[in-house]
């Protein structure tokens, strides 16, 4: 049994013992207390693991953006989603440019996709392939914006035959 599996297996064991124990048994309350404590510890471990995985995603995104501002990486920030978009104005990179936006809990990172090498598309964040392609990064930093300055988001979709 691996260390990460010990607490869940102990929890299952205590739960099984509790099911087969008489409620008048002097150890009953101690079993209930032990089971509650183990579940609380497992909850803390899972929360910390989730936070760590979120920070790894943040670092992977940061490492894949050329000229990315270092303050993108923050312990209070979490990654929400990534969207490929086309710029409709000339405010950031140029009208018609294919951009990628990384949405975080409090900021939006706007990037331009780099032209792919050998016909392959830029890698997804978290794949670690920027080490394999000679350090070339898939995205170029354009702008980091706080979410509170975004006034409106418009989703324009192409429709067939109209």
TrEMBL record:
Pfam families: ECT2_PH, RhoGEF. GO terms for cellular component: cell cortex; nucleus. Residues 1-48 form the DH domain. GO terms for molecular function: GTPase activator activity; guanyl-nucleotide exchange factor activity. GO terms for biological process: mitotic cytokinesis; nervous system development; regulation of cytokinesis, actomyosin contractile ring assembly. CDD domains: PH_Ect2 (cd01229). Residues 116-135 are annotated as: Disordered. This is Protein ECT2. It comes from Melanaphis sacchari.
């Amino acid at each position: 049994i691996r260390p990460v599996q010990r607490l869940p297996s102990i929890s299952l064991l205590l739960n099984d013992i509790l099911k087969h124990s008489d409620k008048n048994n002097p150890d009953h309350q101690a079993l209930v207390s032990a089971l509650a404590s183990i579940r609380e510890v497992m909850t803390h471990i899972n929360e910390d693991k989730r936070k760590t995985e979120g920070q790894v995603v943040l670092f992977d995104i940061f490492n894949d953006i050329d000229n990315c501002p270092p303050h993108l990486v923050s312990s209070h920030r979490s990654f929400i989603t990534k969207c490929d978009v086309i710029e409709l104005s000339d405010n950031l990179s140029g009208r018609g440019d294919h951009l990628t936006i990384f949405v975080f809990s409090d900021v939006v990172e706007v990037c331009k996709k780099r032209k792919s090498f050998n016909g392959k598309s830029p890698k997804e964040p978290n794949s670690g392939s920027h080490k394999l392609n000679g350090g070339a990064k898939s995205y170029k930093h354009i702008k980091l914006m706080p979410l509170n300055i975004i006034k409106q988001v418009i989703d324009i979709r192409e429709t067939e035959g109209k």
